[in-house]
Automatic annotation (TrEMBL), chain A:
Protein name: Signal peptidase complex subunit 1
GO biological process per UniProt: protein targeting to ER; signal peptide processing
TM segment ranges: 31-50, 57-78
GO cellular component, one term: signal peptidase complex
Species name: Paramecium sonneborni
Keywords from the UniProt entry: Endoplasmic reticulum, Membrane, Transmembrane, Transmembrane helix
Main location: endoplasmic reticulum
Family: Belongs to the SPCS1 family.
Pfam families: SPC12
Membrane topology term: Multi-pass membrane protein
InterPro entries for the chain: Spc1/SPCS1 (IPR009542)
UniProtKB/TrEMBL annotation, chain B:
Name of the molecule in the record: Signal peptidase complex subunit 3
Gene Ontology cellular component annotations, sorted alphabetically: signal peptidase complex
BP terms from Gene Ontology: protein targeting to ER; signal peptide processing
Keywords (A to Z) from UniProt: Endoplasmic reticulum, Membrane, Signal-anchor, Transmembrane, Transmembrane helix
Coiled-coil intervals: none
Main location: endoplasmic reticulum
UniProt-listed Pfam families: SPC22
Claim: 4Fe-4S is one of the keywords in the record: no
Membrane topology: Single-pass type II membrane protein
Amino acid sequence: MAEGQSDTFWKSLYIYFNEMDFESQLFVKKIYKIIILTVAIISFIIAFFLERFSICVYSTIGASVLCILVLAPAWPIWKKNQPNWQPANWQKQQ
Amino acid sequence: MYSITARFNQIVFFTSWTLVVLSLLNQGTAYFFKTGKPTVDLKILSADKFHHYKATYYNGGVTDWDQVTFKFSLEADFEPVYNWNLKQLFLYVNVHHEHQENGFQSNCVIYDKIISRPDDPSLWSDSSKLVLKNQRAEYPLKDIHKQLRNATVNFEVWIEVMPYVGYIRREKLGDFQYKMPQQYN
C-alpha cells in the first residue's frame, strides 16, 4: 500500500471482516467446539427418546450455521483487544 | 483462526465430523429397539390371460412362450422392523418355478412396492400395515420353455430393508405354493 492509494469498497469490507484480535481468536477456537458438541450430544439424547433422528441432524446443522454467522466474521465484539501497532512511517519507504 | 476462510473451514468440517459420528451411533443403537419377524399372508386369487403367445421379429424369426398374469391379495404387518434408522422398505413378490423335465430354475418378480417410513413415530402404526385386495400383478410371468401348464409354482414375499446409515439386507417373509391350471384359458 503506497501513499495516496486506497482500497476499493469490497476489499476494505473483506479486510474489515478478516482481521480479528489474537485474544478473541483463542476464544473463538475454544468456543465453537463447545457449542457444537453440546448441541449434538443433547439433541441426540432427545432424538433417541422421541425416535426421530432428523431432530439431531437439523439442530446440529443449525448450531453450526449460527456459529458461522457469529464467530467467523470479525464483528466489532471480536476487535476489543487490539495490539499496540506502531504508527506508519511513509517517509522511510521512499 | 487468523482469517475468515480459516475460521469458516474449521467450523464446517468440525460439524461434518460430528455428523459422521452421530450417524454411526444412529446405526449402532438401532438394534436396541424391538426387532422381530414381520407377518405376511398372500392369497392367489386367479391366473388370468394364461395363453400361448407368439411374436415375429422384423427379420422373419418367430418366437413363442407361455405368459400368465396373476391377481392376488396380500396382508402384511411391518411393525417389528420399524426403528429410527429405517428409511424405507422395498417389498417384492417373487415367483420361483422349477421345471420338471430339465431341472431349470427360474425367478421372476411380479409385483413390487416402496413403503416409506414417516418421520413422526405416532404415524408408524398406520403406515406399517399393508392390505392389498384383488391386486393385479405388475409384471407377467413368462416361460420360454412352455412348461407352465399344471406346474407347481412358489410365491415368495421378500423385503429389502434400507436404513439411513448401514447395510441393506434382504429377508424372505413367506412361501406360498400354487398349482397352475391344466389348460390355457
